[in-house]
Design a protein that fits this description.
Its main location: membrane. The protein is an alpha+beta fold and 164 residues long. The chain contains 4 helices and 7 strands; from the N terminus they run βαββαββααββ. It is globular and about 40 Å long. Bound molecules: adenosine-5'-triphosphate (ATP) and magnesium ion.
């Protein structure tokens, strides 16, 4: 990793712009949130994670399915939620989608050319930053949540008020 001072909101906006250009048939909403969220992360790796989740929300849902992205910060964590209104991921598959090469519907996923690596890579990249990726899903609503520490665990903390 090559950590650098990074604004998560700008990173998400860039990923949203790229998504809209690549998937003009998918309405993407960026929820109002903080104007900026300062992180010390590898911006290219975090962007790769965002791109993986956004691409999934397009590739594994029917044409025209809306996608929503929300950034928030609090309790020492920055969070990005990528929500789609697609068919959802069955309970039995929900944890396995993070396994390498795992695809819910092998035949159909092969048509779409996916290798089943995106979420495994995303999770390992986020974990390398001390964060987590989780999924909740029901028919019509799937949410992937990325959580990252607002500051490195080893960052020195001197006196004075905590900033969130
Ligand atoms: P790759 O990302 O390597 O191109 P992939 O998209 O198939 O291929 P992952 O991103 O790891 O691989 O996703 C694994 C599987 O999880 C997908 O094949 C799909 O079955 C399921 N999946 C992922 N995201 C969603 C989603 N938003 N809605 C429904 N199913 C999903
Ligand atoms: Mg993928």
């Amino acid at each position: 990793l090559r950590p650098a001072d990074t604004d998560l909101v700008t990173l998400v906006q860039d990923a949203a712009d790229a998504f809209r250009a690549a998937h003009p048939d998918r309405p993407l909403t960026l929820t109002d949130g903080p104007a900026s969220v300062a992180l010390r992360v590898d911006p290219h790796r975090v962007r790769q994670v965002l791109d993986n989740l956004l691409t999934n929300a397009a590739v594994h849902t029917p044409a025209g399915t809306p996608v929503c992205v929300t950034v928030s910060a609090g309790s020492g964590r920055a969070r990005v939620e990528v929500t789609d209104a697609g068919p959802g991921i069955p309970p039995a598959d929900r944890e396995r989608v993070f396994d390498r090469f795992y695809r819910v519907d092998k035949a159909r996923s092969r048509d779409r050319g996916g290798s089943g690596l995106g979420l495994a890579v995303a999770r390992s990249l986020v974990r390398a930053h001390g964060g987590t990726v989780e999924v909740t899903s029901e028919p019509g609503r799937t949410v992937f949540t990325v959580s990252l520490p607002l500051r490195a665990a080893a960052a020195p903390v001197s006196g004075g008020p905590e900033r969130s």
